[in-house]
Amino acid sequence: MVSVVAILQEACWGSLNNVLRMAIIIIPLMLLIEIFKDLNLLEHLTSLVNPLTRFIGLDPEGNLPLMAGLFFGISYGAGIIINSAREGKLTMEDIYLINLFLVICHSLFEDTLLFAAIGANWLPLLVGRFLLAILVCALWYRWHAHLPIPAASGRTS
Fold first, then answer.
1. What's the predicted TM-score (pTM) here?
2. Percentage of residues in the chain having pLDDT higher than 70
């Protein structure tokens, strides 16, 4: 019979090992993110995705928020989406498309690397999430874009 102490010891070592493997991935990614932000590289990369975003129906003003969410995650992307919306750069359709895309495919590289660290096959995960997001957004744009998007019911100040 296995003792409780042995189970706890194995659980602790296994957890510590997983945390260290994730830290090896996350810390360099966070440094890279900071470098990208400081050098404004993300804004330059947005021009490269114009054909893709045009295919899914997104205006060029939505490229930066989409790329931020794709590379850096929902929380950073959301901050840029909110800021762009407040500045009037995004339409409700753009906001909807960006959110739809990011629900399926956010933190593309970070999530993929984390799943690979725990043993997942990274290539189908990376390609599958990205293609699914493109497909869903393109289909929505072509078949549902004529439907009105309900405005968010929020507080009035």
1. 0.69
2. 89
